[in-house]
Amino acid sequence: MKIATAVRCLASSLVVALAATAGLAQAQKTELNVYTALETDQLKAYTEAFSKAYPNIDIKWTRDSTGVITSKLLAEKANPVADMVVGVSASSMAVFANEGMLQPYAPKGLDKLSSQYRDPANPPMWVGMDVYGAAICFNTVEAAKLGLPKPQTWQDLTKPIYKGRITMPNPASSGTGYLDVTGWMLMMGEAKAWQYMDALHANVAQYTHSGSKPCRQAGAGEFPIGISFEYRAVTTKKSGAPIDIIFPTEGLGWDLEASGIMKTTKKADAAKSVMDWLATPAAMELFAKNFAVVAIPGIAKPLEFVPADYEKRLVKNDFAWSAKNRDKIIAEWLKRYDAKSEPK
Amino acid sequence: MSTAAASLPPAATAARVVPKVHWQERLAQGLLLLCCVLLAVFLLGPLAAILVKSVQDKDGAFVGLLQFREYFATPALQRSIWNTLWVATTVTAITVPLAFFYAYALTRSRMPGKIVFRMIALTPILAPSLMSAISFIQWFGTQGLLKGLLGGASVYGPIGIIMSSIYATFPHALMIVLTALLLSDGRLYEAAESLRTPTWRKFFTITLPGAKYGLVSAAMVVFSYTVSDFGIPKVIGGNFNILAVDIFKQVIGQQNFNKGAVVSLVLLVPVLVAFLVDWRMQGRLHAQFTARAVPYVPKRKRWFDTTMFAYCTIVALLLLLVLGMAVYTSFIKLWPYDKSFSLRHYQYGLIDAGVISSFFNSLKMAFFTAVFGTMFIFASAYLLEKTRAMPLTKGAVRLLASIPMAVPGMVLGLGYILFFNHPDNPLHFLYHTMAILVLATVVHYYTSSHLTAVTALKALDNEFEAVSASLKVPFYKTFFRVTVPVCLPAILDIGRYLFVNAMVTISAVVFLYSPSTQLAAVAILNMDEAGEIGAAAAMATLIVASSTVVCIVYALVTRFLLTRTQQWRVSGLA
Amino acid sequence: MTPNSPAVPADDAFLRLAGITKRFGQFEALKSVGLTIDRGEMVVFLGPSGCGKTTLLRIIAGLETQDTGTIVQAGKDISRLPAIKRDYGIVFQSYALFPNLTIFDNVAYGLVNRRQPRKTIAGRVQELLKLVGLPDAGAKYPGMLSGGQQQRIALARALATAPGLLLLDEPLSALDAIERVRLRGEIRALQQRLGVTTIMVTHDQEEALSMADRIVVMNAGRIEQVGTPREVYGAPATPFVADFIGKINVLPAVSEGGGRFRVGGVSLAAATELPAGTSARLYLRPEEIGVHADGTAPAHALPARIAKIEFLGAFCLVGVVLDNGDDASLVCNVPRQLADGAGLAPGRVVGVTLPAPAIRVLG
């Protein structure tokens, strides 16, 4: 009896192992495979609200960092698993569009969105949700110990006093890093931007492999100044870290969290419903809880620690340009800064 | 053929004898071939899929060696290769002796607390490798308590990589060396003692040569592990470039699979060299392992036991300090400014980030990996060591078994996507299932387990199979009645090794999990990425704690098994 | 008790090997070996390491396959049979006892597989344990026994299924000297009692001489000589056999015809005739040489001078140099009493006698 039970358990677990997601349990609900890079706590709120609006669509999230999700989607290109992509950077969406992986769709109420926060094509391949832009995290406690003045601008960061005190994401590993680099290029022009980065490089202690790391390192006092992005800066400060957030006045590089439908999906209708919902003011209000700028103007409310004129400081972005020149810019960046030996 | 026949004496020109092969032998050979095919499908297939990328451009057009030329023209490359080699060599040179003396103390002394020392030594594999990197940053970083010990040097870079890698590879090396030492012949020591051989001479004339195979294997494993791991250098490496991080930059940072494939190939070179060295050594060592299973029972020697105890205490304390810092970090509010006790990281990880369900997935995945992985790995090692003939298949299996250590998990995972998600692959049904996670994890941790199995099998008398054939007993009966029971400690070690590694594996499975098979360790990586160090430490602590519980339960269950099957070892005391 | 096979060949040849060759890559391990072994015989393969003796044994067992050649056992061609289909028991130098099984289970290992009743098995195991002199060892594990005891158990295990052929692969080499001598007597007695056809491989000539019915001396993949211990010792067929077995004096000589040979300025008589002028080597065992104190020597004794004396207890090895013999030196084996009585000492002149029948002439 016992043996029989054990055998059955083993057998059934084998079956489960082999066919876990092969679709044994067919629910009446439409299951939608969605790849995302959104934060888990954001996902929770968005899913809850969406389920209320569309109770017959069941979203199965596959969540990972932007880099991993982008790589995963590209690797699966031959036979995509995802039905759609939500909350992945516009730079990545531009890559997917170039690879012909997305299908165009104009969600209801598209006309209400700011034109710069969506794919310029009509109908668009992808649509933006909200903006995340560059920000500097500045540890006030450590700065006081070291006697560092608070920098106000990008140029300030090149002052010799900050030597070995700054970290920023490596554009070769992190989309946030690339966003900083293109931001400087768009605001200063390419030649000046390289000059600026040469000067900045002298002060950089470390190029990290994640966009959040510099701010966290600043928060933990490892390196007092971290070039990161607004959302991470705000959450770090809220967690109690003694940091000030600086939004340099010269301009801020930025990217979008954006969404689109995979060309190969068999559930285009459900996916379109999600796209429609993401473009509603109700959804935008949810985004606005985390981000200072959302795709529909006028919905965002001022956020704690973020200046009111934040949107005005964003540089004028050109996603097509930055996608096209990415290999070239990164190669040049690596040549200039990557071979550098350890700072002593 | 004709020249060979001509050189034979006339009497021998008679027809060459073709032996009749018994069905049992055919069965063994068939099974070995099956093992070879399975390894080829689940290792070479995915690797081939990704390596094809190395001669293509982004659009999939054939470009020959262009990608290689471009990559080798990068100024940072030479530095990366050099950095990788010297860091891995340093780690190997420190870890292997460290682990060897620890294993020596565990097997050759009668110091107290061996069980505890053994358990502590295995703690590093209970946590994701990046946990050690986080912990070393807390100890030696800008805010670290022990920062002064580095004399002004930064922990970010080679120092941090080396320290974290030593910590992470220590149990891997220990496991292999321990097996080699446990299985060496006690009669040699009896003979040496009757000759009044001093301890140090016994060490150099018996212990060291006896463990040579294990030492070489351990060195190979540590070296390959350090070369291919990217978790540690990514977190603590700063601007120090090594090849595994280069792959990360290409594959995750820039989604350039083609260049990633090129770097992966470069990475395979040192490991293939290590394999060849290992292979040659093995040929020479063959005669040595005709050991009779007479277990060595150490005698009490006050001075020696005390020294060994002191050594193990120091190592164990250092290991615990690393783990302890991670646990500490998980319970404080905000490093380093608010060190008050708080459970908020656990709350965040378990509830807000929803790690609970992933955690059960991890347990399930680890269980399947341990059960099926151990069965397959031990059976194939047995067939490899004890089956006659088929030299080509054997060579292939040996090579296939040592490749996984050289393949960064990330590369393996990508290969699995490209290979198994291809619409024309008949095995496509595996994609996005628990099964593929289990398969990838078994393959990922194959080498170390395989070496443990081989080391244990090599210590068995070579003639068991011949004896059972002469007694007309089928080989599989002897396998179950003798081979498995005698090797049971090693088999149980492999099972536990696979389990704890499956609990923390990240890089291979990060590309393969589906919404219903999300894993806890992946969540930890993401938390670290997002800078949630406290939550990452908290979840790592949970994994360590649960793996510890599993290991203790496992130890209790296996103790029952071992006392039943290993009486013959204990009885050697008489 | 006597093992019996159904097909008994008329001429009593139990095992016939013909034209056995084996190569390992470039190395020729066996070069066309042929041999016939009688029923109930104890045959010892003797030779230096690498001579092919173990390979030959493993081929007989089916553990290696010969490249060419046939093996007929008990009238049946077994050349191509896998090991498991052949009829033999085997004992290895390493004992190869299953360490996790009790002595009882080790001995019963081959019996259990034959689905015999439990009682029969227990009886048989007890019988075998008694046979090898360890009736109380059944409950112990191999690790608790001495090497010699373990090898006895291995023997019992090999005999348990009453095989037609017993193969012993250097069974005594791993044991200490005393145990080795004791066990070789036991194995021989047991073999004679059971009448089981046995092949043993060894590199130890003393072992071979004391145990074998016939010795097969092997060198470099060939059989040099097959014969009884007395034959191979007393009448070595080749220089290799002469050199390999026992101590022997070698004198380079030239035939003078008529059964006489010249060594330096000395002329010696031998039992063999060669045409005059042929060069040859004379082989003579040390114990065949008579050593006589000056004055007591018979007329035909050759004058010689003692170079050195090595005292070995019962015997002395006396090294002498023949006068007029081109400095030809001989080692003689002299009983202690004789040596003392004759007052042999280095430097003394003695007369030595070299009996013609004991001198062996080889090319």
Strand and helix map with partners:
The complex is a heterotrimer of chains A (344), B (574) and C (363).
Chain A lengths: L1 H18 L10 E7 L3 H14 L3 E7 L2 H10 L8 E6 H9 L3 E2 L22 E14 H7 L19 E4 L5 H14 L1 H12 L2 E5 L4 H7 L5 E5 H9 L4 E4 L7 E9 L5 H11 L2 H8 L21 H4 L5 H6 L1 H13 L6
Parallel strand pairs in A: 1-2, 1-3, 6-7, 6-8
Antiparallel strand pairs in A: 3-10, 4-10, 5-8, 5-9, 5-10
Helix pairs in contact in A: 6-7
Chain B lengths: L1 H6 L15 H29 L14 H7 L2 H34 L5 H9 L6 H12 L17 H25 L3 H9 L4 H12 L1 H17 L2 H6 L6 H11 L3 H29 L16 H30 E3 L3 E4 L2 H9 L2 H32 L4 H12 L6 H12 L13 H11 L1 H13 L5 H7 L4 H30 L15 H10 L3 H33 L1 H4 L4
Antiparallel strand pairs in B: 1-2
Chain C lengths: L12 E12 L2 E12 L3 E5 L6 H9 L6 E6 L2 E2 L11 E4 L10 H10 L5 H14 L15 H13 L5 E5 L7 H18 L2 E6 L2 H7 L2 E6 L2 E6 L1 H6 L4 H6 L4 E9 L2 E4 L2 E4 L9 E6 L5 E4 L8 E10 L3 E8 L6 E7 H6 L7 E5 L6 E3 L1
Parallel strand pairs in C: 3-8, 3-9, 6-7, 7-8
Antiparallel strand pairs in C: 1-2, 1-4, 4-5, 9-10, 11-12, 11-14, 12-13, 14-20, 15-19, 16-17, 16-19, 17-18
Features:
heterotrimer, A: 344 residues, alpha/beta, 14 helices, 41% helix, globular, C: 363 residues, alpha+beta, Rossmann fold, OB fold (Dihydrolipoamide Acetyltransferase, E2P), six-stranded mixed beta sheet, 25% helix, elongated, disordered N terminus
Structure commentary:
The complex is a heterotrimer of chains A (344), B (574) and C (363). Chain A is an alpha/beta fold and 344 residues long. Chain A contains 14 helices and ten strands. In chain A, strands 1, 2, 3, 4, 5, 6, 7, 8, 9 and 10 form a ten-stranded mixed beta sheet that branches. In chain A, helix 6 packs across helix 7. The longest helix of chain A is centred in the first third of the chain and has 18 residues. The radius of gyration of chain A is 22 Å and the shape is globular. With 574 residues, chain B is mainly α. Chain B has a domain of 218 residues: MetI-like fold, CATH 1.10.3720. Chain B has 25 helices and two strands. Chain B has a two-stranded antiparallel sheet. In chain B, a hairpin with a 3-residue loop joins strand 1 and strand 2. The longest helix of chain B has 34 residues. The radius of gyration of chain B is 25 Å and the shape is globular. Chain B starts with a helix and ends with a helix. With 363 residues, chain C is α+β, with helices and mostly antiparallel strands. Chain C has two domains: 232 residues, P-loop containing nucleotide triphosphate hydrolases (Rossmann fold); 114 residues, OB fold (Dihydrolipoamide Acetyltransferase, E2P) (Beta Barrel), CATH 2.40.50.100. Helices cover 25% and strands 34% of the residues of chain C. Chain C is built from nine helices and 20 strands. In chain C, the strands form four sheets. Chain C has a six-stranded mixed beta sheet with strand order 6-7-8-3-9-10, with helices on both faces. Chain C has a five-stranded antiparallel beta sheet with strand order 13-12-11-14-20, with no helix packed on it. In chain C, strands 15-19-16-17-18 form a five-stranded antiparallel beta sheet. Chain C is elongated. The two termini of chain C are 48 Å apart. The chains are: A alpha/beta (344), B mainly alpha (574), C alpha+beta (363). Chains in contact: A-B, B-C.
